[in-house]
Automatic annotation (TrEMBL):
Pfam families from the UniProt entry: NAD_binding_11, NAD_binding_2
Domain 6-phosphogluconate dehydrogenase NADP-binding residue range list: 2-159
Source species: Billgrantia tianxiuensis
Residue ranges of every copy of the 3-hydroxyisobutyrate dehydrogenase-like NAD-binding domain listed in the record: 162-277
Keywords: NAD, Oxidoreductase
Lineage top rank: taxon: Bacteria
Source taxonomy: Bacteria, Pseudomonadati, Pseudomonadota, Gammaproteobacteria, Oceanospirillales
Molecular function per GO: NAD binding; NADP binding; oxidoreductase activity, acting on the CH-OH group of donors, NAD or NADP as acceptor
Catalytic residue list: 168
InterPro entries: 6-PGluconate_DH-like_C_sf, 6PGD_dom2, 6PGDH_NADP-bd, HIBADH-like_NADP-bd, HIBADH-related, NAD(P)-bd_dom_sf
Name of the protein this chain belongs to: NAD(P)-dependent oxidoreductase
Length: 295
């Protein structure tokens, strides 16, 4: 299986190296010379965007739907370059409306489509332990099963084109909400004189636990590392996409708007370029000192 990975950032670059290590014929491409050189130095075959080779799979790892659209539609574009029968796989967190529009054009051009947004960060991409949410045809997923198995610890087919991106937005909304609520809960405990690590141990033994309390807090927040590889700007973008999707569906008012507003309330703290876990770190740091605990 010949795979061309387009977008060689922390996620795309690590996915490309993982697939190459698994025995696939992988070529990488990126708009930036520095990204191509970084992966070439690690042994990956790289080409410029105007030199994409004929491939069985074009795997996209790009920041937004705008870049996905550009790669697919803008001349020369994959609609004109990709061999008939090849598959375009979008692992970005994209706008489901755009994904469904692009999927229709891809299929009309004799190609196949799969949206496959991922979770697990750069570490998951580097170790082949990603979680993947798949939107597309069952036959396409079966055809790509060896590639998907090499990339992921688990992949879940959630529906037709665009469905993967819908569920990914739902997932990121919950993650964003959990960062806020878990930070408040841990801060409350800290004000009462409870050590944050002890509080988390208690939460993780009960029904309030989440991936945020079990993974993010010990891994990136309490440790002070804040190097998950996912930025605040990307989370803010995903929340805006989730809000737009809810509005298009005429969803009744809920907590989503409050979460979106909380993440956008102070654009500099954290800044878009900061690790997204910093929003919880900042709230936890603002907790009242233990000596002011309730008595």
């Amino acid at each position: 299986m010949r795979i061309c990975v387009i977008g060689l950032g922390q996620m795309g670059g690590n996915m490309a190296l993982t697939l190459q290590a698994a025995g696939f014929d992988v070529t990488g491409s990126d708009l930036f010379d520095s990204a191509r050189q970084r992966l070439a130095d690690k042994g990956l075959s790289v080409v410029a965007p105007d030199e994409l080779p004929p491939s069985d799979v074009y795997l996209l790892s790009l920041p937004t739907s705008a870049q996905v659209r550009e790669v697919i539609e803008t001349a020369p574009g994959l609609l004109g370059l990709a061999p008939k029968g090849s598959v375009i796989v979008d692992t970005s967190t994209s706008d489901p409306v755009v994904s469904r529009e692009l999927a229709a054009k891809v299929e009309a051009a004799g190609l196949a489509w799969l949206d496959a947004p991922v979770s697990g960060g750069p570490k998951g991409a580097a170790t082949g332990k990603l979680g993947m949410l798949l939107g597309g045809e069952t036959a396409t997923i079966e055809r790509l099963a060896p590639m998907l198995e090499a990339m992921s610890a688990r992949y879940t087919h959630v529906g037709g084109p665009g469905s993967g991106h819908v569920v990914k937005l739902a997932n990121n909304y919950l993650c964003a909400a959990h960062l806020l609520t878990t930070a408040e809960a841990v801060a409350m405990a800290a004000r009462a004189g409870v050590d944050p690590a002890a509080c988390l141990a208690g939460l993780n033994s009960g029904s309030g636990r989440s991936a945020v309390s079990e993974v993010n807090f010990p891994e990136w927040i309490l440790s002070g590392r804040f190097d998950s590889g996912f930025t605040t700007g990307l989370m803010r973008k995903d929340l805006r996409l989730a809000r737009a999707a809810a509005e298009r569906l005429d969803m009744p008012p809920g907590l989503l708007q409050a979460v979106v507003e909380a993440w956008h309330a102070d654009p500099e703290h954290p800044a878009d370029g900061d690790d997204f876990n910093r929003i919880a770190g900042a709230r936890l740091a603002a907790a009242t000192p233990a000596e002011e605990s309730a008595s």
